[in-house]
Amino acid sequence: MTTTLAPPGSALRRPVRVWWRDAAGLVTWLSVLFVVALWVSGRGLQDLGPDFFTSAGRLTGLVSADLLLLQVLLMARIPWVERSYGQDELARRHRLIGFTSITLLAAHIVLISLGYAATDRSGLVGEVWTLVTTYAGMLLATAGTVALVMVAVTSVRASRRRLRYESRHLLHLYAYLGAGLALPHQLWTGADFTASPVATVFWWSAYAAAAGAVLVFRLGRPIWLNARHHLVVEQVVREAPGVVSVYLRGRHLDRLPLAAGQFFVWRFLDGPGWTRGKPFSLSAAPDVTGDRLRITAKDLGPGSRRPARLRPGTRALFEGPYGRLTGTVRKGPKLAMFASGIGITPLRALLAELPYLPGEAVLFHRAGRHADLLFRRELDELAAHRGLRIHYLLGRRSRDRASWLPENYARVPDEQVLRHLVPDIAEHDVYVCGPDAWTAAVLDTARRAGVPADRVHSERFGW
Questions:
Q1: In what order do the strands lie in the sheet with 361-367?
Q2: What is the pLDDT of residue 375?
Q3: Are 374 and 296 in contact (CB under 8 A)?
Q4: Is 445 exposed, middle or buried (0-12, 13-18, 19+ CB in 10 A)?
Q5: Strand, coil or helix: what is 392?
Q6: Which of 84, 338, 354, 388 has an alpha carbon 20 to 30 Å from 360's alpha carbon atom?
Q7: What is the DSSP letter of 374?
Q8: Which residues does the chain have with pLDDT short of 70?
Q9: 91 near 463, Cβ under 8 Å?
């Protein structure tokens, strides 16, 4: 028996180097420690006694500024950082650092105002007004603070649920504005910014790195890739009620470092609203030799409804590829895929691209009814020709517990069902894609079934 190879032309990337992740985390902590060291060298500790509020305000302001720049770097789409973490984990870390940064910024404003009010022997409100209206760069810093607060408010879970993806994406661009407006204040009135040559070099380098990353990876790289590959819509095919696949043709796709399981942020030049990007995964293994790609979209709102109206020849602009739900994170030969609804798209592509022997790959495909099963014919062909085992999970989910199984399994623990269907599940790499609650239930079941954490791979698109 011979190993089934990936389809010809599939652009598998080299595995992610583990030390990239460690290096990124180390740089983050070292930058914070260095900022604290700069504060100490500027008599921060000595001043805590006689001028506690001002000295503590300096420290919170410095750490807040450092974390703000780290936020920008996290979401600058730097390829090796994105490949190490994946966009969903980067988004979670971005939110954590963001909320910490905005909290420290608020503490900085309060502490500095209290410190200056005590020194000037004035009221707090009057001192704040004086700081904002008379100190160099403070009006700009105030506007930047308002922008950052707006970004923080729209990042709260309740706000994210109310806002469309495109609106959240647009609002978060104000974080760049907030970071830029803070710079004049630090230059003109921030003594710690210019207290020593070392401090000046550090802060200028940090701002230059953040700005450079945005210019190169958020602007320059997408412009260059779109000019190079020139993707256009070839055809639009209806897959199921409210679901369409868009076939795109381009140039030199063999030079695009992409793999099955990844997604792009797409913009289609078909009329008003084209500037609002929307993420869609590849739903077929990249046909780089034929210079063709396929994405599949479900009608979940105005942004995801747009592909159904596309016409052949429409120009498509893309950012990416993004995501680490690829073969590069795979640990062993056996695969267990869990997909719900439109979450089948990246897993369908992976099942076509990844090598596995007959019987080594199993797919759990969740849908409410038969008509909602996407790529049924293609998956059945994979089962017939490559030995893929498929379990279609149809029907309403249990309302009594958080489960990824239909309600007819409600009397049996999820991990028991999983072990019965896949006795050696702990030896499989588990790939999961679907709605957040469903994905969480699968991940919990995999953990309880004994699957090692480094063999569980998921990518959520709630960011």
A1: 389-394, 361-367, 334-340, 428-433, 456-458
A2: 92
A3: yes
A4: buried
A5: strand
A6: 84
A7: T
A8: 1-18, 49, 136-137, 152, 154-176, 187-190, 288, 300-304, 460-463
A9: yes
268: helix, strand or coil: strand
pLDDT of residue 6: 36
User: Cα separation of 311 and 280, whole Å?
Assistant: 18
| CATH number belonging to domain 230-322 | 2.40.30.10
3-state helix, strand, coil in the chain (%, to 5): 55, 15, 30
Residue type, 378: E
Confidence (pLDDT) at 12: 42
In one-letter notation, the amino acid at residue 277 is: G
Tokens at 8, concatenated:
């010809």
Find how far residue 258's CA is from the centre of its chain: 17
Q: Which residues have C-beta within 8 Å of that of residue 149, sequence separation ≥ 6?
A: 102
Total residues belonging to the chain: 463
Q: Which of 224, 136, 126, 254 is nearest to 188 (CA)?
A: 136
Which pLDDT does position 15 carry in this prediction? 57
In sequence order, which residues have a C-beta less than 8 Å from that of residue 23 and are 6 or more positions away? none
* Alpha-carbon distances of 159 from 80, 102, 236, 463, rounded to whole Å: 30, 17, 33, 12
Q: From the CB of residue 81, how many other CB atoms can be counted at a distance below 10 Å?
A: 19
pTM metric for this prediction: 0.79
- In words, the CATH class of domain 327-458 is alpha beta
Phi (first) and psi of residue 60, to 5 degrees: -65, -35
Amino acid found at 275: T
